[in-house]
Fold each of these.
Amino acid sequence: MTMIRRRSVLGGMAASAVGLPVFAQDTVTLRFHQFLPPQANVPKLAIEPWAKKVEKDSGGKIKVQLFPSMQLGGKPPELFDQAKDGVVDLIWTVLGYTPGRFPKAEAFELPFTTGKAEPGSLAFQEYIQANAMDEFADVKLICTHIHGPGLIHSRNPVNKLEDIKGMRVRGGSRVINIMLEQIGAVPVGMPVPAVGEALSKGVIDATTIPWEVVPSVKVQQIVHNHTTFTGPKGLYTQTFCVAMNKARYDKLPADLKKVIDANSGAATAALFGRAMDEGDKTGMAAAQKAGNNIITLNAAETQRWQRAASGVRAAWYAEVKGKGIDGEKLAAAADALIAKHAK
């Protein structure tokens, strides 16, 4: 009996070593790597529930180990390649952390394009599946999603367009940085985890993050002014994805592939979008509790910002045309899907 069991174990080790598929009865451990602390909204309200559901749906055959705050090494811009190269099994990341890598996805980052995160994420997921799956050919795409309305958090109050002129403002993607230039700010690119320290040290004067991120980087304690806009759409949008190493997925037995597939796509995009929307409520409440100055620009002033940022679309159309991409057509497709899913 002992000899048979030992041979079985050794056989399993040998199969693993040569990259053969694991048997359905074996437990598969997947390492999920991302850049925010575990108490932040997306890890708490989306990644952890997703992992638990995968474990439950697999009858315990899949175990998902969560590694927040870049615990497995590297920097946030390296996460997508970590999944692509098999350094980790699963990642959640910001697409804009690797500028120019996802040009078709950038249609959703254009100024004043999206509003609430859940319907916007459903629109973005459908958009990617129809128009940009080639940008994710190197991974098994679990889902894509967006955050809620983008706003400005600043040391000095931003009551009108002129107030942001010359401000050093953190931007989270290439398109957001182009927008910041258009409205007269000085863009400074950096991932979210660096924002708190950069604000504290005066490296930047303001940051572009949604309400959802505010508590996790303690922005409400560092700056005391928050500028929002009239209407359902935010100043900017950040795009995200959850991705799995393709070879790791391919090696799964058929029943476990079905579990991953069932926890991919629109429903998962909506889960992450809901987490963002819930996080927006928490983030705004944190700023209110701190007694901060929350500014809502009126309709006329919001329109001034819209006009100031309108050149971003034309610039983006011209740029992606050089890559053989019809940006105008993609932006129209994005707008139509956002309207379709709007609540």
Amino acid sequence: MTIKDRQHAENFPVALRVLPRRHREHLEAVYGFARTVDDLGDESLGDRLANLDAFATDLNLIWAGRRPSTPVLVRLAGTVRDCQLPAEPFLRLVEANRQDQRVKSYRTFDDLRAYCTLSADPVGRIVLDVFSVTTQARVAWSDAICTALQLVEHWQDVAEDRRNGRVYLPAEDLARFGVTPADLDKSSTPDAVRKLLAFETDRAESLLREGAPLVKSLRGWARLSVGGFLAGGLATVDALRRCDYDVLARTPKPSKRDVLRHLIAEVAR
């Protein structure tokens, strides 16, 4: 299964579109892989676990020095070779989608963050490797940003996730705010759900701020690229607050103006 370049571009951070061709093509290969894995876990027909297993088998051929058969992996193989990328982050992304087939809700926030170490953090680590700027401190900052990006995406998509049988809002937090899963089926967001989402959005913003020193630690195109991710997360926080957390009526979308505003602020620090 592959993704269309047009669909990919819709989710491609605006800052990355101005990168030199060599960086842009490598990052497009990585995001093409990530989108394909997500599509296999969310939309593929038949046994999704079996589909993911088959994809992982094909993926592992890259590090065995053999040519994979899936087009998106053929493209990825060149990036892995040129940037000397390890297999582990890619395999964690596959495992995240396996987990999605088995786990439909999370008891605690710590449980949800552990899921993000599979579903989100590997992308940031791969990006650091693509730019050859990986250090221990930068990995920690990157993990904070990537986890936050995953969280705000979940808070945007509460209604869609619920329709797909998933609730990413931690059960302990639902109970704390007096929210039941049935409240997530409504067409307008109840006050208790809005208060819960305000709490969770504040948590995500705190993680974005925790990871923000990563941008200042970088230079050149790496700084612009990572700044784009951070700006996108902060703009999504703005969007959630602007709609007063009414995520059941519509999916809040960050504005390009907010993304650009945050990008300029973060890169200029």
Amino acid sequence: MKKVLNFDTISQYNDFNNHETLHPLVSVIDFSKAKERTGNKMDFGIYCVFLKEVVCGDLKYGRHYYDYQEGTLVFIAPGQFIDVENKTDFYQPIGNALVFHPDLIRGTSLAGRMNDYTFFNYNTNEALHLSAKERHLVLDLFSKINDELQHSVDKHSKTLIASSIELFLNYCERFYDRQFITREDVNKGILARFENLLKGYFSSDNPTEIGLPSVAYCAGELNLSANYFGDLIRKETGKSAQDYIQAKIIDVAKDKLFNSDKTINEIAYELGFKYPQHFSRMFKKTAGISPSEYRSKN
């Protein structure tokens, strides 16, 4: 049984990677300095961004392979757990990482923006795949942060480092936008599967047995994290995943109102609503008229 490694402080992670602690709340790791190791289960209490030096042409995501060769970025947030599987032999880790403690950003503008960086809650198989130019920029930003760590800690250190990390994460947002675009064909395939999933859901007994389909449920059925799935749907359709689901619910409801003699309450229960008034409220908000008005006009 694998030992679980807990990293609640920067010094703990630095020690694990044979790295000097220059600042108690932030570090830039060069994995080539680490000792050889086998796969481990790791529990993180700190933010980590790994630049994995792997051949991305051999990295499989779903049924598709990526062709970026220079590396991938994986984002880990406090409270997350990862497991390096299929690594029973000793190996030399390669790459770099930026790690920082939540206390570093408290009281800074970055703290207020962390929830905007939804990629910290993506699955590791939804990593950011970098081009050569993007990889060079990431390493340059890591270097600038590391240069600041060489200075003695003073009243400016926290602001400068937090600003540099925020700049780095803003670039990552841009890179993910690029990745969504370059994966357009794959994304459209996911969108089609999403549509088929919803069609199948409402033609089954799931609504009465489970209730309304949630974003988390749909993401799980498509083997995606809820955050990645939500961002993908918004990029492809301009709607949130929740709005997309609600539009589908209303579309199915219109068919039922038009093609059956069932009462509005019966239709609401068939769709998965616990309370018919919630159905009527959603219908009017989306369609502009009440279910009874829609039925009478059609």
Amino acid sequence: MSTPQSDADRANAFFLLDEVLQFFWPAALRAAAELRVADHLAAGPLPVRDLAKAVGADPGNLYRALRLLATRGVFAEDAEGRIALTPKADPLRSDAPNSVRAGVIMVTDAMFWSTSGAITDSVREGGPVFERIFGVPFFEYFSTDPATVALFHEGMASYSDSENLPVARALPLAEGTRLVEIGGGHGHLLRTVLREHQGVHGVLFDRPHVIAEHDLGELGDDTRWETAEGDFFKKVPSGDAYLMKRVLHDWSDDECVEILSRCREAMHPGGRIYAVDTVIPEGNGYDHGKVLDVLLMVAFTGRERTAAEFATLFDRAGLRLERVIPTDSVMSIAEGTRA
């Protein structure tokens, strides 16, 4: 004979059943981003039928998707039945100063959406499932699909653009520092750092095809920066300090030790390492890094790490974790020196 359910039992059961449906929220968000709904509402609210015609969608189904988004304040229906842009929806505009449209589309792309559906295999077997689904490891996949490469870089820029200034302001860089950014991409972070720290000289280090598209020229002073091409597993340029943002989280512990060791070998006396990632706090509370860590688990060999895990990585590379510097973003800076 089954035990009668209490009100608390029923509430807890409904909580889980409701939570498991929440993946439709990012699905609807992707639809709004792909259809550029926010762009078409920038001039003011529109009736659903007019909005659907503008974006090329079915009016009824567009309304249903936007009604779901409105439950979280992303778009709103006014008293006249028109759909309006809201402050939370504004970053979906492709021309917004803080646009995250590309980031939304990237995270809901098949490269992450499909791998998340195979999470049980990753948990059971202890490795990423990306290669099993797509036939090649994550970063090799890019070489076979130029459109995905562009989407990934645009999507990551959506995240970086909201993080770069807080990170740059938190970096304790001395006048005259030669700062090497490892895996610096197109130079968005380094450009921000150089604007905030006028006495610093920057070196943007990455693969040749990535460096070719850098935009450091926007600084207007080419005496303050230079570029260098190479493989950070083999050799990196000499410098006083090394900056790497969202780099270590892409790689396994052994691979991270290799990257950090190359930096230690090239580092000038008294040099510093600044590893910028989410640093997962202790306890059961929500943290952005805990979500990203599961995304990485199914796609890469990497992970988000705690301060203690960063300390272990640094120690294995002949470095010492001096402190973790918080920023006014989800990112923190693990600062290390030669041990």
